[in-house]
Write a structure and sequence with these properties.
Helix 10 packs across helix 11. This protein starts with a helix and ends in a 5-residue tail after the last helix. 36% of the residues lie in helices and 23% in strands. The strands form 5 sheets. Strands 3, 4, 5, 6, 7, 8 and 9 form a 7-stranded mixed beta sheet that branches. The longest helix has 15 residues. It is globular, with a radius of gyration of 27 Å. With 528 residues, it is an alpha+beta fold.
């Protein structure tokens, strides 16, 4: 448990996916198979259900610490998290020892099966053997509040370094219906999945950002130019009647988009199709953040599918009827692809309409389609090029636009858990709506210097207005320049809009708050 808690702390503090994968790989190198299977279950969302309510945990903690309820409540008011409060107020352990994660989960089983007296006895025994951060992680597990779900890609990267098994195979095996108490690590990771080889993704044709003058590409009629809205680049594979959907980042997302899987399941042919998955509703592109919401949900409900419906832009066909046709020129592959999509005739499947791009003037003539509205990125491919070919890449070109920024006022600060030292990990910025400050963006303070963060944290501690768990409402007096890609409408947010990719450009310590931008300023920037 000590090693598992150490991994949790490292994952909390690290911002780099590579560092997170290294931390998990280090754990894998020393942990037993029994501990590893539970670690995979916990980090992949297959964690056990709660065995104790927060109220029961609080009651036991007060008894062990000898604290009255009012004093515990005062501590909780300051800290904002039950598990963290309990971990900090408990007396020093009297029987410190390292208990393997698998043994802790065996105790969890005994607690679940036992009565209240048994649960308390087992809990006290665990608390008495652990240091503060271990207790914090244990409390989260026991109450079902553990939220440190790790992206599958990070887990598979760590497993690849530990086992040498291809990551795409590991993703398939982790997505099986399995339970940590019914399967061993060896069975889960090393046993092949049925029809596994049919799921192997086709090599990706990566997009290269084009920054030189378009005129250098030569004659315009040698190239195909397609609209490139915000979306998720995916590969849809159908072989031997099975459908698999892969993202360009290597994630197997078949279960996340069952409606797309169903459409392709009904097609008799076998193929590999690449394209763009786009959130689209009421003839409008939805923000990329909503598509990411589906990716993070792990389980797709009908409510979420209705909230974030998707369409698919099919743009290439590297494999057809079990045959690799990637060496064929693009125009031939597109002819086959067009015949397939038109024969299916489904409202969620589309071919991106080509647009007219003037290479000399670097301007785009709209096709008048809803699919060409409010988009500044375009995919440029040579009509005679094979699927992937050295020297003839697929280009992604974007219309140049001035960077967007606003002056925002800091109104909320969220602190981290004990591993983060209680310092600020997320800022909420607001703009003016008449005399009120309306929140418009949440940003991690990654661009601020250590000296600036020290001053800001000092201000926050002395100017708290209200507390909401780990969130602090502060006296609005700190002003920042916030950069972003664009503004889009959003019914989910109080402001009625959302900023895409917000980031702190700089702190403006001498800027008065009345100089902050207004909601009207942002509404005037809305595109799409």
């Amino acid at each position: 448990m000590k090693a598992f808690a150490a991994v949790c702390r490292e994952l909390e503090l690290s911002k780099s996916s590579a560092k997170k994968a290294e931390g998990i790989a280090h754990y894998l190198s020393s942990a037993s198979d029994a501990d590893i299977i539970w670690m995979l279950a916990i980090f992949s969302g297959k964690r056990p259900a709660s065995v104790l309510s927060p109220a029961s945990l609080k009651e036991y903690a007060m008894e062990m610490a000898g604290l009255p309820s009012w004093l515990f409540d005062e501590c909780f008011e300051f800290i904002g998290d039950v598990s963290e409060t309990i971990a900090l107020i408990l007396p020093a352990p009297t029987n410190m020892k390292s208990i393997p994660l698998s043994e802790v989960m065996e105790v969890w089983r005994s607690m679940k099966a036992g009565d209240a007296a048994t649960r308390k006895e087992l809990l006290f025994s665990l608390w008495n053997s652990m240091e503060t951060y271990e207790r914090y992680v244990l409390n989260k597990l026991l109450t079902g509040a553990f939220r440190s779900t790790i992206p599958e890609g990070i887990l598979c990267s760590a497993l690849f370094h530990h086992t040498g098994i291809d990551e795409w195979k590991l993703r398939l095996r982790l997505q099986r219906n399995w339970s940590p108490d019914q399967i061993t690590f060896q069975e889960l990771v090393f046993k092949e999945v049925e029809k596994e080889l049919f799921a192997k993704p086709f090599p990706w044709n990566t997009l290269t950002t084009y920054q030189a003058p378009l005129a250098e590409l030569g004659e315009e009629d040698l190239w195909r130019v397609d609209l490139q809205p915000e979306g998720l680049r995916i590969q849809i594979i159908k072989r031997d009647g099975e459908v698999f959907i892969w993202s360009a980042t290597g994630d197997l997302i078949t279960l996340i988009f069952p409606e797309i899987k169903q459409v392709f399941s009904e097609i008799k042919n076998s193929f590999v199709i690449t394209g763009l998955l786009i959130a689209f509703k009421e003839d409008k592109y939805l923000p990329l953040q909503l598509l990411e919401k589906r990716l993070k949900a792990r389980k797709t409900s009908k409510i979420l599918m209705n909230e974030v419906p998707v369409i698919f832009f099919a743009d290439d066909l590297p494999e057809w009827e079990g045959r690799d046709i990637s060496p064929q020129p693009l125009y031939q592959r597109l002819e086959k692809l067009s015949e397939l999509i038109q024969s299916v005739n489904h409202f969620q499947l589309h071919l991106p309409r080509p647009v007219i791009l003037n290479f000399q003037e670097e301007s785009v003539q709209s096709t008048g389609s809803i699919f060409s509205a409010s988009c500044s990125s375009f995919m440029i491919r040579k009509l005679t090029a094979r699927y992937y070919q050295e020297g003839e890449p697929t280009y992604l070109w974007t219309l140049k636009s001035d960077p967007l920024s606003i002056i925002g006022v800091l109104i909320y600060v969220q602190s981290g858990n004990p591993g983060a030292g209680g310092v600020a990990v997320e800022f909420t910025f607001a703009v003016w709506k008449q005399e009120l400050l309306i929140p418009v963006a949440k940003v991690r303070p990654e661009n601020l210097s250590p000296g600036e963060m020290q001053k800001i944290n000092a201000y926050v501690k002395g100017n708290v207005v209200e507390k909401f768990g780990p969130v602090r409402s502060i006296v609005p007096d700190l002003v920042f320049e916030i950069g972003f890609e664009k503004v889009q409408q959003s019914k989910r947010h109080k402001s009625g809009l959302i900023l895409q990719s917000p980031r702190i450009i700089k702190w403006l310590p001498n800027e008065p708050i009345h100089r902050g931008h207004t909601l009207e300023d942002l509404l005037a920037m809305i595109s799409g």
